[in-house]
TrEMBL record, chain A:
Domain of life: Bacteria
PANTHER family: 5-OXOPROLINASE RELATED (PTHR11365), HYPOTHETICAL 5-OXOPROLINASE (EUROFUNG)-RELATED (PTHR11365:SF23)
Any one GO molecular-function label of the UniProt entry: 5-oxoprolinase (ATP-hydrolyzing) activity
Limits of the Hydantoinase/oxoprolinase N-terminal domain: 7-194
UniProt organism field: Xaviernesmea rhizosphaerae
InterPro entries referenced in this protein's UniProt entry, alphabetically: ACX-like_C, ATPase_NBD, Hydant_A_N, Hydantoinase_A, Oxoprolinase-like
Protein name per the record: Acetone carboxylase subunit beta
Ranges of residues in domain Acetophenone carboxylase-like C-terminal: 534-713
Gene Ontology cellular component annotations, sorted alphabetically: cytosol
One GO term of the biological process aspect: glutathione metabolic process
Chain ranges of the Hydantoinase A/oxoprolinase domain: 219-504
TrEMBL record, chain B:
Species of the source: Xaviernesmea rhizosphaerae
Pfam families per record: Acetone_carb_G
InterPro entries in alphabetical order: Aceto_COase_bsu/gsu
Highest taxon above the source species: Bacteria
Protein name: Acetone carboxylase subunit gamma
Length: 716, 164
């Protein structure tokens, strides 16, 4: 029977839906996002997608096995400060958290130049105003012992005042609550008492329950965002789930989360779905790599505004535990991915003093460039350069939906870039693109080489609407084992979301140290009980929580595959490293030796062998449990191979493109008309509705049976 | 190619009405070559007298050209202090805080300076009574001459034209 996977991405302007069946056949639908009720845009996008198969939603939805949501509504709610009205209770003396912030939050996301210019730094508008921040005396110390008892009457008074201010939720974040949550629980008790007395009830968010991790400020940010922006999303999810049910869908809608798995819309920790956009591609690349037997992958994604890079090594990506997002430092697991440069819509400018060409940091985004007259853009972009050189077909943007004006691009490049430099406009545009591609190439090289790896051991994946246009430029000379461009590059993020497992990943700070068994055997023996006790209790507690979360989706405990991880560092150092263990409890001294050995292997890979410092001892900072439930994944398309020569009809036209200072006659193909096995030798341009793949002179692209192009530089 | 900002944007900049995003763009972007002339134009519009502004000198103070060619320091409210090369402070109203009592009017007890060591000199515009400048110096210290602009060189070498 035909089964389908659906994934959707409700972006700032467009809602994409992606359907794939079990033979790997897929469609992508688009519709305008409807922020007030996202289910409307979702419905339209679904209709747009399925119309391409000539199907009605009602015919397909009953056969949808998995439905994944990702979107930016939560992020927008945060950026626009349109979340819920909250009150916050903190340890007395700490009420100014949001006014003081951490200094870094006043310049997060800035360019290096701006970071140096103090006049650009700016405090954020607090999520909760000062008058709704209440302090309560009492103190738990860093070991978890009560140093000062909680002043319960102050807690009651604080809750009463907040309720009188009509708050819709109360966040509680006390110092060291991750070691001992007793005081937070006492605040909750007091709050429940007051609520009963007042006949009012609002939800209470305890940091020790939701995010029991070190660093009180980042923890407060995370819990507050959970209550402020994430909680209201549940209503949106419900509406989308209802719409899917009306179409006949039987599946449970899940949400893409920052750790690279999907979680239920009922999950307690929903804030981690705040960041999901760029992760989809990484998840998709990992899945594709596993299917094709490729363990080491460089993921590169060029969109309209940014160039995102991530590494998959040995089939796994690494995870950051303190990401920042929307100018907040957070304590959430986030797939390690870096936004390192400009995108195809980035503005190109000439520094009036030095006459140096600069990209971005701002971009025209969906308004493309000067070539799109209705966009109202008045600065040329990289797309304008691509247009005048013949790389982009002005009549094929978004499959011809938008007609671009080449003459406007030419004039803009000539006046703003070429004339001031005394260059020919075509040379200037080519120079700009070369500079851009060199910049990307340096970044790619630095990411791989900087981690101690070498490009020869990696396969590069290029996707995103702009990836295939520039991939030849930014991989040339780097000698990657292979360079892959999936034919569905533009919809790769949505595809990736559909590849994600159902996975909860929970963590807890423990901070217990152990000595080296070789250098200090006595201390090692002595510390065994403390360490094993903390790790085992931590893992057990997290497993129970994971089970609870899965139970909300009706998943049977037997289906859950647990993976047990720790984060360790050398005592006194600052960066911890994550390792996975083959056991679920520490029982013998050998288990700790195993932990240490795995840590040192991981540490030497990330830093260097000579930096190992066993004499310092080892600190287990966090315990983690990942609970994974395998779900149906999109099948890879698999077609019979044809000969290298494309069909005569696939060739659309011959078009001049400007490259290396002269015009070449490039063969223009339509991607949909190419057959697996075809080999396209450059200069050629392969056009699809939502992306353009450039095969420059001296390169060739072979389409394999899975509809993935392999790009090869013949001259390397 | 040179950057140039819309005069209304600069007007908002002067009045502190720019959104932070726009202000950030202005701070981080390339310097606009015609900023000086546009700002002078904006300042000229904002005062009620007609003497042409040669140079904004400090907050509320300008060097202007009188009909007889003299260059004079003049305030927003039209008070003429002195020749451009002189120290305008010598012609302003002065209030010196040199006792504990006077200092405590501004700073809470113990947070102000010791008047034996340090005093506050406040300079006011005689026409509007607006506080223009505060000097914090040891008693007996000469009056500070903040800024002695070389207007001729500025016009000739930086703007590339003679002083109007």
């Amino acid at each position: 029977m035909n089964q389908f996977i659906m994934s959707m991405d409700a972006g700032g302007t467009m809602t994409d839906t992606f359907f794939v069946d079990d033979t790997g056949r897929f469609v992508v639908g688009k519709a305008q996002t409807t922020p007030a009720d996202e289910s409307i845009g979702f419905g339209r996008s679904v209709e747009d997608a399925l119309a391409q198969w000539g199907q009605a939603p009602e015919a397909v939805f009953p056969k949808v096995a998995t439905g994944i949501y990702s979107g930016t509504s939560m992020l927008n709610r945060l950026l626009e400060r349109k979340g819920r009205r909250l009150g916050v209770i903190v340890t007395a003396g700490m009420e100014d958290y949001f006014q003081l912030e951490r200094g870094i939050q006043t310049y997060l996301g800035y360019s290096y130049q701006d970071r140096l210019k103090v006049s650009t730094h700016r405090h954020n508008q607090p999520l909760v105003p000062r008058e709704r921040m209440k302090g309560v005396r009492g103190r738990i110390d860093l070991f978890g012992t009560e140093a000062i008892p909680l002043y319960e009457h102050e807690a009651e008074a604080a809750v009463a005042e907040l309720l009188d201010m009509d708050v819709e939720g109360i966040v509680v974040n006390l110092l060291f609550s991750y070691v001992n949550g007793a005081h937070e629980n006492a605040v909750k008790e007091a709050a429940l008492k007051v609520m009963e007395r007042k006949g009012k009830s609002v939800p209470i968010y305890l940091s020790s329950e939701l995010y029991p991790v070190m660093q009180d400020f980042a923890r407060l940010n995370t819990v507050t965002i959970e209550a402020y922006a994430a909680e209201p999303s549940r209503g949106q999810f419900q509406k989308i789930a209802d719409r899917a049910r009306n179409f006949g869908g039987q599946f449970e809608l899940r949400v893409m989360a920052s750790h690279g798995g999907t979680i239920s819309t009922e999950a307690r920790e929903l804030a981690r779905t705040l960041i999901s956009g760029p992760i989809g591609g990484m998840v998709g690349a990992r899945y594709l790599g596993a299917e094709l037997g490729i363990g080491n992958i460089v993921c590169s994604d060029i969109g309209g505004t940014s160039f995102d890079l991530g590494l998959i090594t040995g089939g796994e990506f690494t995870t950051k535990t303190q990401p920042d997002m929307a100018r907040f430092v957070l304590k959430l697991p986030l797939v390690d991915i870096d936004s390192v440069g400009a995108g195809t819509g980035s503005y190109v400018r000439l520094d009036p003093i030095s006459k140096r060409i600069e990209f971005g940091p701002d971009s025209a985004g969906s308004r493309i460039g000067m070539c799109f007259e209705q966009g109202g853009v008045d600065t040329p972009t990289l797309s304008d350069c691509n247009i005048i050189l013949g790389n982009l077909n002005p009549n094929n943007f978004l499959g011809g939906e938008v007609i671009l004006n080449r003459e406007r691009s030419y004039q803009a490049i000539k006046e703003r870039i070429a004339d001031p430099l005394g260059l020919d406009p075509y040379d200037a545009a080519e120079g700009v693109l070369q500079l851009f591609e060199n910049h990307l190439r340096n970044e790619v090289y630095a990411r791989v080489f900087g981690k101690g790896y070498s490009p020869e051991d990696y396969t590069l994946f290029s996707y995103g609407g702009g990836g295939p246009m520039h991939v030849a430029g930014y991989t040339k000379g780097l000698n990657f084992a292979d360079v892959l461009v999936p034919a569905w590059a533009a919809g790769f993020s949505a595809f990736g979301c559909a590849c994600a497992d159902f996975e909860y990943r929970l963590d807890r700070t423990v901070n217990v140290a152990t000595a080296s068994p070789d250098l200090a055997p006595a201390a090692f023996e002595q510390g065994f009980d403390l360490l094993s006790g903390a790790v085992n209790a931590g893992w057990e507690g997290l497993r129970a929580k994971v089970k609870e979360e899965f139970a909300k989706s009706g998943v049977d405990a037997g289906q859950i595959e647990y993976r047990h991880c720790l984060r360790l560092q050398y005592v006194g150092q600052l960066n911890d490293v994550e390792i996975e263990l083959p056991f679920q409890a520490v029982r013998r001294a050998d288990d700790i030796r195993e932990i240490i050995e795995r840590f040192e292997v991981a540490y030497s890979k990330e830093f260097s062998r000579s930096a190992k410092s066993p004499e310092l001892g080892y600190l287990v900072t966090n315990v983690l449990v990942r609970g994974v439930v395998k779900v149906m994944k999109p099948a890879l398309p698999n077609f019979p191979l044809h000969g290298p020569e494309p069909l005569r009809d696939a060739l659309k036209e011959i078009r001049p493109i400007y490259r290396n200072g002269k015009w070449h006659d490039a063969r223009i193909f339509h991607m949909d008309d190419l057959l697996p096995g075809n080999v396209i030798t450059g200069p050629a341009v392969i056009e699809a509705a939502s992306t353009t793949f450039m095969v420059p002179p001296g390169a060739e692209a072979r389409l394999d049976q899975h509809l993935i192009f392999h790009l090869r530089h013949l001259e390397d | 190619m040179s950057v140039s900002h819309d005069i209304n944007t600069l007007r908002e900049l002067k009045d502190g009405k720019l959104s932070f995003e726009k202000l950030h763009g202005l701070i981080s972007g390339f310097k606009d070559a015609d900023r000086f002339d546009k700002m002078v134009q904006i300042w000229q519009e904002s005062v009620e007298w007609d003497d042409p502004i040669l140079l904004p000198l400090a907050e509320h103070l300008f060097v202007v050209r009188k009909p007889d060619g003299r260059r004079v320091v003049k305030s927003t409210w039209g008070y003429e202090y002195c020749e451009a090369q002189e120290n305008w402070k010598l012609h302003a109203k002065v209030f010196v805080r040199d006792t504990e009592e006077l200092i405590n009017e501004i700073y809470p007890d113990k947070l102000g300076c010791d008047p034996e060591w340090m005093q506050l000199r406040e300079y006011y515009d005689p026409l509007s009574g607006t506080l223009l400048e505060v000097e914090v110096v040891p008693p007996g210290y000469p009056i500070v001459h903040d800024f002695k602009p070389d207007i001729d060189t500025f016009y000739r070498d930086w703007l590339g034209r003679p002083v109007p």
